[in-house]
Sequence to fold (934 residues):
Amino acid sequence: MDKETFRKYGYEIVDWIADYLENTSQYPVKPAVSPGEIKAKLPEEPPAESEDMQAIWQDFHEIILPGITHWQHPGWFAYFPANNSPPSVLGELLTAGIGAQCMSWETSPAATELEEVVTDWLRQMIGLPEGMKGVIQDTASTATLTALLTAREVATGFKSNEDGMKPVLRVYASSEAHSSIEKGVKLAGYGRDNLRYIDTDENYAMKPEKLDEAISGDLEAGFRPACVIATIGTTSSTAIDPLPEIGRVCRKHGVWLHVDAAMVGTAAILEEKRELLAGSGYVDSLVFNPHKWMLTNFDCSAYFVSNPSHLINTMSISPEYLRTSKDAQVNNYRDWGIQLGRRFRALKLWFVIRSYGVRGLQDMVRNHISMARWFAGKVIESGNFELLAPVSASLVCFRWNDGKTPETELDKINRQLLARINESGEVYLTHTLLSDRYTLRMSVGQRTTTRADVEKAWKIIKAAAVR
Amino acid sequence: MDKETFRKYGYEIVDWIADYLENTSQYPVKPAVSPGEIKAKLPEEPPAESEDMQAIWQDFHEIILPGITHWQHPGWFAYFPANNSPPSVLGELLTAGIGAQCMSWETSPAATELEEVVTDWLRQMIGLPEGMKGVIQDTASTATLTALLTAREVATGFKSNEDGMKPVLRVYASSEAHSSIEKGVKLAGYGRDNLRYIDTDENYAMKPEKLDEAISGDLEAGFRPACVIATIGTTSSTAIDPLPEIGRVCRKHGVWLHVDAAMVGTAAILEEKRELLAGSGYVDSLVFNPHKWMLTNFDCSAYFVSNPSHLINTMSISPEYLRTSKDAQVNNYRDWGIQLGRRFRALKLWFVIRSYGVRGLQDMVRNHISMARWFAGKVIESGNFELLAPVSASLVCFRWNDGKTPETELDKINRQLLARINESGEVYLTHTLLSDRYTLRMSVGQRTTTRADVEKAWKIIKAAAVR
Fold:
């Protein structure tokens, strides 16, 4: 979508919202649609080629809008309000445009400090004691779960995050698995002690025979193996755990197999990368994030399960005030996850997939991978830099090493090098540790990044290295 | 904010985003700000009166933008991408404008069915097996926790949600508490069996002496009381648990006190309603949702804690690839909740509070409460309707009852009545059960709802009753 088209439809949607917020009452507050009626009007397969915004916008009016329950209707007296307002919509628009991910102060200082300020404003506004500190959660469900988890830890002297529950259930992941797995293991009550890290090979991929040994040993020792997490594209180096072999081990022992493909899952939209998810027939659940590498603004994370009834049995609640006459015929996604409240995230995903078409998304991913390969080639050719992991997608792990400097000095040199690279303000790279070595990570994936930007980065890196 | 102002700034922000997405490279990818620098430029207290959008927009440029880390910069090679795109921004804008809350099929059929379609598109695009079903989560952290919870339940034959962990920790809430508490108790590993529902009085508020008895009894029996959840405004009837008395019981026994004020917390912005949160000095954690009744589009839930170190000790993870040199000086909100990834929700909240001013928000809330009181008055006067609970905020619980019809027939009559009311398409009310009686809920809280809309609702209800 070019700039003029974005502006044209931006204005048009702004106009539409301006009218909508004023005239919501012209719609029936609750749509007269039957289960399946809207789905039947939508194509089962994603569009291969880019579609015109005009067609998407028209379908919104003809297909989606007639199936919307109008929470902003003045006749909304149901459940509870979820009222919005023009300035809030403007703030959300701007948030989407900036597209920042606000996990840490570093990844958006202004977002963090503004959050400190406005939550304190709220504290003052409702008259909470001065010492209380605020943070924004997505929903009260999450906030309440957070309170229960904290209360549990306080009540056990912060022991249950470590020790877990009885019976002793075990979880397995590679030693390169993402930190969210350790956090999940703690919060879900397994106890960190029951997360077993499985050794990796020279490419930082899980060794399936080690997994098999660990599970067998645990079974003999009376533990109950509950979950294996295979990573397709680790955070540190995009290492690829061997899914078919891991799947066979899980099948043999009857253990749940979850796949964390958060970043690299998107690469599987390429025919030539489809092998990344070979073995997915063994998978019980899998996650990948369109909000990372598929042009969908944060947040939007796609979670797949082979047997939804397990998920629903785990999550479902059905108090009287949420029951409806259609419950048996429809998906109530509140029972497919942790939160009760849910935004309409499918809409932006629909816009993206239609607007780019699968082909457009493939072109972008292929281009990023090719830029990463070009960069890796430069690293190899250079003589005073080295690759520290295979380039399986669009991340290059490397460091400065002239082959003459003692290993003991390389961490410090590379740490200083990274600081100098980032000082430029023109590029931003982060680091990790691989086999205890300080490693620079060149992660290529921004929509607007061109070959020229990667070339410039390489120049900045080389220049920073000779200083 | 009037329609023309919304359109003017809508266009201006669309234009700004159009330029920004093209010219992100003109900004330093990582801002050169020190911890506390942005906060120091923001007022410590919320504005009492409405501020002009021009002033807010100018402050965005002068204060916020210089502290943004530009994830959309072509020189972004840090962490992982969180790339967005013009159609995605348009989709998010539209989502914010519609402001639907998509927890159930009923609360937005089109959202649910579009989610089914686009997650299946994704499944096809990355080549997952045909049987797998998809759902959108906010982040991979949440998805992974979801997988771990499901795996745990499968491994224990769905027993650990019920039985919980050792040592046996107990949670207490009133029998009117929200379903998300039961869900949280299950997911956090306490086990549903260890959630004790405390009896309520004739106003559906928790009896503090019953709470004291329950905790004392549990202590004698060797259980460990971990958490009490007081509700300020229950979902069914906005009953108000007596916070000071409950707080004293918690203090006496050393038990964590969490307050669920999701809906009614907003009412405490009124001086005359400040008493709702009297006793907040006893509180360890509290949640209220600006996305419900404070003009902030979904999602935005404010969570407050008295001692952040407990929260951080429970939640924190610190893998090498997330460490920065500033960690000791700043809040990293990833350690204040469950997800690693976080949107910049503070921005819309800032827009809302400044744009309306505390006064503007108070006016809205006061107005909603007064409309609910008017409606309750009509119910009382009518002679053939009755109130089923006190009106403590903006929710009226009532039913048709002419005083002559046998109690055994009233549930059916009121169920049919609600269906007829909603058939009109002009209003939408939902129901609950209070003391096992089918109860109609008139929840007033939409920004655009006027006295005329409430009067119309009352007419529709009366007309539906005589049919």
Summary: Chain A touches chain B through 263 residues (CB under 8 Å). Residues 346-382 of chain A form the longest helix (37 residues).
